[in-house]
Amino acid sequence: MNFKNIAVFWAPRMLSILRIVAALVFMAHGTQKILGFPASSMNPAMFSLPWIAGILELVGGALLLIGLFSRPVAFILSGEMAVAYFLAHAPKSFFPSLNGGDAAILFCFVFLYIAAAGPGPLSVDAQMRRGTDGY
């Protein structure tokens, strides 16, 4: 098996793994804001921007984890992270390493990539689609 065959085999599966790992890490931010786990001083008021972000992180993260409605969910979460960066991080400093916005930038572009590329073969979306186009 040559490198091209290996890449053709693993590339879609690695897309699924990227989606799953990003969703798990992202969901932790939602559980912290909404469920108080892991424990933190953050306790956002209901319907405040941090609370809405927490709901998006928890529900959107869960949907991405299983790969259901992946493209629209990833697009919405990408937008959430762009807004979070410009509202919460950018005013602190121009440099992401100083303003704490590294994760927001990475999540934004990982989710934008998933919105464009799809969830990969290990997803509910792919399972539902398998009957029609064979992938």
UniProtKB/TrEMBL annotation:
Record flagged with keyword Transmembrane helix: yes
Membrane topology recorded in Swiss-Prot or TrEMBL: Multi-pass membrane protein
Single GO cellular component term: plasma membrane
Residue spans crossing the bilayer: 46-66, 73-91, 103-122
Keyword annotations: Cell membrane, Membrane, Transmembrane, Transmembrane helix
Superkingdom of the organism of origin: Bacteria
Cellular localization per UniProt: Cell membrane
Main localization (coarse): membrane
Pfam families found in the cross-reference section: DoxX (PF07681)
Family named by the database record: Belongs to the DoxX family.
Descriptive protein name: DoxX family protein
